Amino acid sequence: MTFGKVIGSRQYLTEPQFQFLDDCSRTMIETAKPLVSQRGATNYNIFRVDVDRSEVAFLHYPFLGVEPFPSLAASWRVHLPTKLVTYRDFQRSLNPPILHRTELLLSEDHPARKLCVALTETCEQLGLFANTSIIGFRSQWLQLIRAKGFELIDFELRPIGNATFADEAPFTEPSSSEIARHRTALSRTTLSAPVQSLIRDGLLTRAHTFFDYGCGRGDDLASLLADGFRCSGWDPYFRAESPRESADVVNLGFVINVIEDKTERIEALEGAFTLANHVLVVAAMLGGPSGANAGRYYRDGVVTSRNTFQKYYSQAELQQFLELVLDHDAYPAAPGVFYIFKDRAVELAYLMEKSSDRSRVARARLASVTGFRSRQPVADSKPKEPDNPATAAYLEALWAASLQLGREPVGLEIPNPEVAIALFGSVRKALSACMALHDPEALVRAGDGRRNDILVMLALQFFGRRRRFGELERSFQQDIRTFFGSLILAESKAQALLFSVQDKALISDACDRASSDGLGWLVPGESLQLHTSLVERLPAVLRVYIGCATTLVGNISDFDLIKVHIESGKVTLLSFQNFVGSPIPSLKRRVKVRLRDQELDVFDYVGGFEPTVLYYKSRYINEEFEHFAEQLAFEEALEELGAFDLSGYGLPNEQFFRKLADLRYEVSGFELRRSTRIPALDDYCGSVFKYRQLIECGETWSQTHAENVPVNPDTYNALFDLATEVLDPVVEYFGAIILTYGFASDSLTKLISSRIAPKIDQHAGCEKTRSGSFRCDRLGAAVDFLVEDEDMLEVARWIHEHCAYDRMYFYGPDRPIHVSVGPDNSRQAYSMVAVGGRRMPRKLDLS
Fold first, then answer.
1. How many Cβ atoms are within 10 Å of 676's Cβ, its own excluded?
2. CA atoms of 269 and 164, how far apart (whole Å)
3. In angstroms, rounded to a whole number, what is the distance separating the alpha carbons of residues 191 and 194?
4. Which of these, 578, 573, 576, lies nearest to 590 by C-alpha position?
5. Other beta carbons less than 10 A from residue 779's beta carbon
6. CB–CB of 701/713 below 8 Å?
7. Lowest mean pLDDT among 222-231, 368-377, 423-432, 804-813
8. Nearest to 661 by CA among 682, 647, 678
9. Helix or strand (DSSP H, E) at 345
10. pLDDT reported for residue 293
11. pLDDT-based confidence at 69, cuts 50/70/90?
């Protein structure tokens, strides 16, 4: 291609470059244009044509020619066979796709073209384009530049020198006496579920005191003490002499379920709650499937064969018991784990954090701060940046506090008010200077996000007890005044939001909007499925819809994916083995919540179950997720194999990996690579031949039986490619063939009397010498074969027309031909012509 930009089968171009298009690509674009116009696409400036996939994309890069690596703002993709249009808005993405080599899309006289050319040359010199699978998104690109010791300033890469950079934080901002009760105390090597929940949700840190009421053998305490936590515990059997002390956080973990006397059970719960200053966490056993709770019935539970008592609860029953005894709301943190708050401020902070979009502030800043945008002239009316570093630092801290609140801070919300007075004379003047210096629209966006967070929290609180306005923490009271006017108005809007989850059309529309923002995989009219970390960014009605499910399940961060069923009023939660670190994770657990009857079904995929594999994981995450670029590259490599039908649920786990191994491929991290396994010689190499037949063939081997077994797995991979890409198709078309010369080790090569060229003929495959160099630099594999009763020139022509190959040598119409495959597959054909008693290669025209 002499115009535009080409990556694989994808061609990027601008409208002025249309004149160079072939008829097929031009027709594809013209066919797709009316379809994207119906979706409101008007401001795109780059077209991407993929003939292989029958797809056209209309892309909007608003700063093409202004920024060195412009970010994608929006895309409309059209799949022409189905006429399906997919829209994606990247304007609120913290890690959007970016465009490299932009000079290929700029006119010759564009003022930025020379700058782009020079920048591209520098990038090539630094090796920044070496791994194209990870450079397509902004964050990874900036990290790579820094790893090379450079920083991007306008259109230049400059050495960082002695400057240091802190590790970049993720985009989220800163979770009766006969009963032997003691026998239920387990020895653990990890923290118990309730303690893990406390730490995960930020309710237990090293700044808090912790008391374990009924600590058993004390394994939780030992782990926490070793990690610097301030903690103590009491147990009626193991630590009966230890005092029962008040603490910020108290744990009653798996205690009430082993007490057979209901009165004692209540006393233990009340006693633990009395000791809690901030929060009590309670955990108990949940009833499992039929037959799991073996034992004889005793009172309201069972006595086991070890003479221990167990009271099994349902999630709803446990919540009702806790709230009835303590007269406080019990919030589910996980299955069988609940929080009961003593401190209203801690409770409110937890609820706000649970219902908040943690990336809200970062996204509010997006229009004000970009990593690439060229500096624009400062308008005369805009205040000048302060020269005093202390003043600039304070104004930035004040702005950060404002964005976090979504409004101007007041009272104790003002950071270091004494500094404001010293620098500006008053807090009011400091606020005025801060607001004049920064983008007011950013504060509006932050306020809109904060307002929605509060609405979601209040909507979900209708499941619990209402609070009087005076009981609310002061900062939250200010939120209510600023965003709603009064608590009555706020609760009225929240109630309307809660009731709106019954509107299927509204839910469907919200799912469409979420999909357009890159939040999950949408099956129109059926479901939206996404990673649980993205839930906080969903439209408010979907967050409430999902929040209704969490009133039963607890914290959804224990799961990986969540599926919103648009029509049936259900939410499904799924957890996988190593979801983050695997490109095709296996399903571990599925929980289906039926919102209409407030029940849930739990399915565990362990033991005798063959786990389901999650294919196309990239659909359910987005570009801000860890390893997203590598995940995309893996999926594209898998698609290019063309060997799997992964529609629907795809192949089961074992079948997928068995077929992958048969194709001489394996998964290593996020890489789909050629196999590193040495196969048995009698394994099939393709559909016709075994490896042994490609190795133990030829006159010399038949006479000598020389040692001739490859030791490099890549040689077997190349033999497999040779068999599947050339030999199998030839046999299918012409019938049986005779192999006359295949793989040749160094031992066999030394015994061949005729003139050969082992350093270039590829019969040595990918084998290496003792010094570690390849015996044949062309790599690949080669074979000589004959088709009896066929003109071998016609066989050569057929191979040239239908097969991928590297070199082919024709010796005569009734002589074997030499065919190889290799990394280049250069499709070079030669006729071996007799010249002065020697055979010399001459170009062979097979057209």
1. 13
2. 52
3. 8
4. 573
5. 22
6. no
7. 368-377
8. 678
9. helix 344-355
10. 46
11. very high
Q: Is the pLDDT of residue 180 over 80?
A: no
Domains located in the chain, CATH noted = 5-159 (no CATH), 181-342 (3.40.50.150), 355-373+387-488 (no CATH), 684-843 (3.30.1380.10)
pLDDT at 629 over 70: yes
Say how far apart CA 231 and CA 239 lie, in whole Å. 14
- The HSE-up count of residue 769 (CA atoms within 13 Å, CB side) is 8
Nearest to 372 by CA among 128, 123, 135, 138: 138
Distance CA 64, CA 120 (A): 15
How far apart (Å, rounded) are the C-alpha atoms in residues 482 and 413?
14
Q: Helices in 227-275 by DSSP H: which ranges? A: 262-275
Give the SS3 label for residue 133: helix
Q: Give the residue ranges of DSSP H helices in 518-625.
A: 540-553
- Tell me if the pTM is above 0.90: no
C-alpha–C-alpha distance, residues 278 and 281, integer Å: 10
Q: Report yes or no: 360 and 94 within 8 Å, Cβ to Cβ.
A: no
131-174 residue pLDDT tens: 887 889 999 999 888 887 678 888 887 766 533 333 333 333 33
pLDDT tens by residue, 714-727: 999 999 999 999 99
Q: Which residue has the tokens 């108290």?
A: 250
Give the Cα separation of 813 and 815 in Å (integer): 6
- Please give the single-letter amino acid code of residue 360: R
Residue 789 identity: D
Q: Any bridge partners for residue 286, and if so which?
A: 313
List phi, psi (to 5°) of 778.
-75, -15
Cα separations in angstroms, 169 against 139, 538, 578, 589, 648? 11, 22, 22, 30, 37
Which span out of 148-162, 379-393, 514-528, 746-760 was modeled with the highest average pLDDT? 514-528
Beta strands in 443-550 (DSSP E): 521-523, 527-531
**What are the tokens at 13?**
């171009």
Residue 393 has pLDDT above 50, yes or no: yes
